[in-house]
Amino acid sequence: MRLLPVYRVSVYVPVDHVQRVVDGVCAVDDLRIGDYAHSAWISAPSTEQFRPLEGAHPTLGGIGELVRAPSVRVEFCIPRDAARLQRLVEAGIRPHHPWEVPAVFVDESSMPAP
Prior knowledge:
Layout: E1 3-14, H1 18-28, E2 41-42, E3 46-50, E4 67-79, H2 82-93, E5 103-112
Antiparallel strand pairs: 1-4, 1-5, 2-4, 3-4
InterPro entries: DUF34/NIF3_sf (IPR036069), N-reg_PII/ATP_PRibTrfase_C (IPR015867)
């Protein structure tokens, strides 16, 4: 078995914006893995929480208010290419995500070659 080095990108998205974010990412990159495109994993809804501080411009809640909102984890993998990763985050996720600071996590991982 041969392993491919990849970035695994996870982003937490409010339930009502999942398709918008996925479509934004796929408009920037086809997320191709072997003979499959638009490869992504979308988890079951969970809950995220945050408290906007002075200077924030929250989409939900007010300054100092603890907010809990349903969200979904969207994950996808791409080959380890820093420019591609930056393009996906800056053009695919941020403009389509409703939060001022989206929760985006990037791990270096490996996956079996197709």
